[in-house]
Amino acid sequence: MTYRMVDLIQKKRDGKAFAKEEIEWMISGYAKGTVPDYQMSALAMAIYFQGMTTEETAALTMAMVATGKQLDLSAIPGVKVDKHSTGGVGDKVTLILAPLVASFGVPVAKMSGRGLGHTGGTLDKLESIPGFKIEKTEEDFIRQVQETGLAVIGQSDDLVKADKLLYALRDVTATVDIIPLIASSVMSKKIAAGADAILLDVTVGDGAFMKNIEDARVLARTMVDLGKSVGRQTIAVLTNMSQPLGHAVGNRNEITEAVNTLDGKGSPAFREFIAELAQLMLSLAGQEKSIPEILEHLDNGKARAKFDEMVLAQGGRTDGLTEALKADYQAEVKAEADGFISAEKAMAIGVLAMKLGAGRATKADSIDFEAGIYLEKKVGDLVQTGDVIARLYSNKPITDELMAEAKAAIELSDEASSHKEILEVIR
């Protein structure tokens, strides 16, 4: 059946629900170019204000999946697991979690994205490794997972064409932060990528798209239900993004922290967080492991060995990954009073890292792999006047204005406060 787009825009504007066939017609037409951007923009804004039912969101997700190729990973033995984060600051989880899970014999076939604005992208971080290639054919991608148990590559242009078009449109029409459109965007890519099971890391707080736990919970529940509705085992974790994750922010800076963690180093709290996520991912593949058993793979070299296998298989070098940053300009941020670190504002720190060169303000911007921020102290730590609490790295001058932004992003108080990484698990 043929519809008129103007009628469908009016229908949603007036708060009515779409039929599955109407959604399929719109999304198919948009992918083919018969529905123009200006009408899809109007529809996105109508959805922003009127929302979508669970049934509409599921139909939208599968309609977007149908606009591209779906990967068939059946040639890879075992339960294939995937992981997705909704984004944040200092989020190097995939770099540690994927090889850690793969070290237990669970195949991890992952397609990742690039960073934009204050959030960092896994692909950008991997490309800071000399020689690392994020592009592979479908056949080579599958072969690598068969041989090494692990691959992290860029998203294929053949997958979910409608999502690429719609995401770019939402980005310039102020319709990014609406739960049905976020959920359908994330899950259409995950479903098309072919994994049997999916762990969703839904970040919440100052440095995340979801600012409060109520919205994050609704988004997580929506995505879990979408995954289950199409036969994918799915678990979501609500994680705290009120401060950057770990100590390092910036591309090679985060590679260094990730590799140090894979070498059995790193803070106990960060190691525990990664192990808890690994425990959930392994459970999706039918393996029940204790936290001590998982941490052992960070200490005995098995997780690092799996990371090195992946890097070598994708053309990268495994030596020199923990060398100090070689930025031309470096600056220390020092405590101006005694007290406890009470806040490290993730959004402000992410924006500052971008200004130093570690991120993109637009998709066309280039990235300085050596730029970044290292947080010497974290929330709850005691500091004294003059202690170095952060270090800035850039290949362009670090101005007084940037130093002021760094100082404003880190707050002190007279009382110690705590920070919990995992806030909730939604199954």
UniProtKB/TrEMBL annotation:
Keywords: Glycosyltransferase, Metal-binding, Transferase. One of its GO terms (cellular component) is cytosol. Gene3D superfamilies: Nucleoside phosphorylase/phosphoribosyltransferase catalytic domain, Pyrimidine nucleoside phosphorylase-like, C-terminal domain, Transferase, Pyrimidine Nucleoside Phosphorylase, Chain C. One of its GO terms (molecular function) is thymidine phosphorylase activity. Residues 340-413 form the Pyrimidine nucleoside phosphorylase C-terminal domain. It is an enzyme of class 2 (transferase). GO terms for biological process: pyrimidine nucleobase metabolic process; pyrimidine nucleoside metabolic process. InterPro entries: Glycosyl_Trfase_fam3, Glycosyl_Trfase_fam3_N_dom, Glycosyl_Trfase_fam3_N_dom_sf, Nuc_phospho_transferase, PYNP-like_C_sf, PYNP_C, Pyrmidine_PPas_bac/euk, Pyrmidine_PPase_CS. Its cofactor is K(+). It holds the Pfam family PYNP_C. It catalyses: 2'-deoxyuridine + phosphate = 2-deoxy-alpha-D-ribose 1-phosphate + uracil; thymidine + phosphate = 2-deoxy-alpha-D-ribose 1-phosphate + thymine; uridine + phosphate = alpha-D-ribose 1-phosphate + uracil. Its EC number is 2.4.2.2. Belongs to the thymidine/pyrimidine-nucleoside phosphorylase family. Homodimer. Catalyzes phosphorolysis of the pyrimidine nucleosides uridine, thymidine and 2'-deoxyuridine with the formation of the corresponding pyrimidine base and ribose-1-phosphate. This is Pyrimidine-nucleoside phosphorylase.
